[in-house]
Amino acid sequence: MPPRAQHASTSDNVFRKLRSAILSGELRQGSLHSIYEFAEKYEVSRTPVREAVLRLADTGMVVIERNRGFRIRGLSVDDVRAVFEFRLVLETTSSSYAAQHASPSAIERLVENLMEMPRAIDAEDTESFTRLDREFHDEIIATMDNSRVRRELAGLRAATQAMGVTTMGRTPRLREICSEHQPIVKAIAAGDSLAAARAMTKHLVHSGRVIMSEVAERTGDTMPPNWPDFLLPSLLDSGQRETEA
User: 72-85 burial string, b = 16+ CB within 10 Å, else e?
Assistant: First the structure.
């Protein structure tokens, strides 16, 4: 494995271990830790641990304290809500835009992505499925040709994946995600902006509710009532209400 790829793999591995320890409660909320502590524990250099901690800080699961290390913050329902509300704003708009502006080659890539997902599910290859899921959303947002939006979404998706670690590991949920992607692609291919926005809304609302529910079970937090009540009624009609039906 090339040195750069090996380094990325080590950083990803440390990230997964720390994330799992936080979600399981092994690392207590409010506890303070150092980079050196986990470099020694995982028998790696400080650099991949530092990179993993920065990624966790982006999700809100840890807080970096200058000259002291990082403190475990945990994950709340409100954290999940905030991330998904931001994603709804960005991705509902980008899906609508893609329905009008996606090139034939972009649509072809979305269709190919959709065809690969069941194979990853059948092989129980969660890593490949996660990559395909990321590429799917990236392809749609790329139609806007806005680097700032792409950077923001990349950060939000990383946070979502960290939050949904247990959810993404379950085959039934993977099949749901694949199924929810189908009407999005269909609407974009048909040039139907409203249908694309509605399908993306339904997908993200469902994902957000699933992850909020899991976090609420672990933390005892209260689920937000009537979420998301900030969306346009035309989107809620096909998103939230169908999800709650």
Answer: bbbbbbebbbebbb
